[in-house]
Amino acid sequence: MMQESIAALTAEITKAELNNPAELDAFRISYLGRKGRLADLFDQLKTVPNEEKRAVGQQLNALKQQAQARFDEAQQAAEAAADNAPANPDFDYTLPVVPNALGTRHPLSLVREEMLRVFARIGFAVAEGPEIEDDWHNFTALNFPENHPARDMQDTFFVTPPVGSEPGTQPHLLRTHTSTVQVRVMETEPLPIRRVMPGRVFRNEAISARAHMMFHQVEGIFIDEGVSFADLKQTVYYFVQELFGQDINIRFRPSFFPFTEPSAEIDITCLICKGAGCNICKYSGWVEIGGCGMVDPAVLENAKIDSEKYSGYAWGMGIERIAMLKYQIKDLRLFTENDMRFLRQFEAL
Length: 349
Description:
With 349 residues, this protein is α+β, with helices and mostly antiparallel strands. It has helices at 2-15, 21-32, 37-44, 50-83, 107-120, 135-138, 179-188, 229-244, 297-302, 319-327, 340-343; strands spanning 125-126, 132-134, 158-159, 172-174, 193-202, 214-224, 250-257, 260-269, 286-295, 311-318.
């Protein structure tokens, strides 16, 4: 019975048509595959009487080598024929090449670079830092003591300490603002300091048209002798008018931030209604673009800077907020949905 099966399979392999890729693939699966005809015969070898197993096994190995040789020969012939195939006579090789389609710059990248260019013109260099931070740089050094209610303003994603960390290892988290880079700059760089800090930040917020759990900021800091709130106001005036135009009005509203004192919110004329009042500005004619203030002396002392000799100002703005105002975008989620219909609108920029 086994001999008959081998003879029949040998005849099939010898007569098999191998003239195209489809027939080659069918031959490989049917005869050489793990579940093919040859594999079935090898499985049946255990049913052959012991005195015949050696002879039958040799026949099966020879048949397998024959099938593999037929397949390899036909495959090489097919590849050689493809390499030597004549060029398509219907194709005009003198036609110009089709250019690669270029992508567009993301609106957040456009706004970020424009903001940095504005600050670079008045001497601010860029500084960057890690997105995973420790509690000291994200909170404590910025005058957010542990259990202080101001921490509730910045819901935080905490990171599990690495396996094998020493007991008492300081907790890490995804930074909630780029003020962490301000601390690192104050700790390591010589005075005076004039820096801007762009970057991505994270907060545990519900995603909506006005909020997201991940967004981008540009913050800045200037520390030197004799720095005053008047210097801060002139910097903000310059930035807003360079970015939005000379006819934009600006106002400072008193506010609270743990790391600055005094502190203020920065409002500008609503770009949608030009100050007349609309639903975007809640009919006030003003929209908030960021916060600012004089660096709190406690923050300077935490960075080992003499607060009796030096003073400074800092500010922070959301890049998404600036982009929404500049391009009149009404839904924050559009920046992260990768909708090509939205992104292609910025090709001309």
